[in-house]
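Tokens in:
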């Protein structure tokens, strides 16, 4: 990502590994079920090998999803980059931010991860602008608030003097 003159990065990160523990757990259950099924149908050794192979695919898929998703906040904009084979880049200026919300399930609260949804001015695409599975989502919001205050973006102009 190229920065404009005077622009600096205030946050750069990826989804937390803790945010995909549920995916890994579900993959482990599926791998065990496949291993048991193949073990009964063929041989115990083949079943164990099949279960391990399925779980390795799940681990690789989770790692790829995490590794190829990047969230960046600069003093002027928010950016989300996703994709392994194809790429999707979503970007908005800080002065277009109107609102945000943080979503956390009970398990996400325990793991200290969550999803931050952003509303932007004149969002015509209907696409959600979000940082999914990030560590300490409240800290991300505070970073954005500080950046907006420092640049003066989003601050309405003072009313004109009626004199």
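Residues out:
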């Amino acid at each position: 990502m190229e920065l404009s003159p005077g622009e600096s990065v205030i946050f750069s990160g990826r989804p937390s590994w803790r945010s995909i523990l549920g995916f890994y757990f579900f993959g482990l259950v599926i791998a065990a079920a496949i291993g048991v099924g193949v073990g009964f149908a063929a041989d115990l050794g083949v079943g164990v090998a099949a279960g391990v192979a399925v779980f390795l695919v799940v681990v690789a898929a989770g790692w790829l999803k995490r590794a190829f998703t990047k969230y960046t906040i600069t003093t002027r904009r928010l950016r989300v980059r996703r994709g392994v084979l194809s790429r999707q880049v979503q970007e908005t200026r800080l002065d277009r931010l109107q609102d945000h919300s943080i979503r956390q399930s009970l398990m996400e609260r325990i793991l200290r991860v969550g999803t931050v949804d952003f509303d932007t001015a004149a969002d015509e695409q209907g696409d959600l602008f979000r940082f999914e599975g990030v560590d300490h989502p409240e800290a991300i919001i505070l970073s954005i608030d500080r950046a907006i205050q420092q640049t003066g973006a989003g601050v309405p102009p003072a009313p004109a003097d009626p004199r």
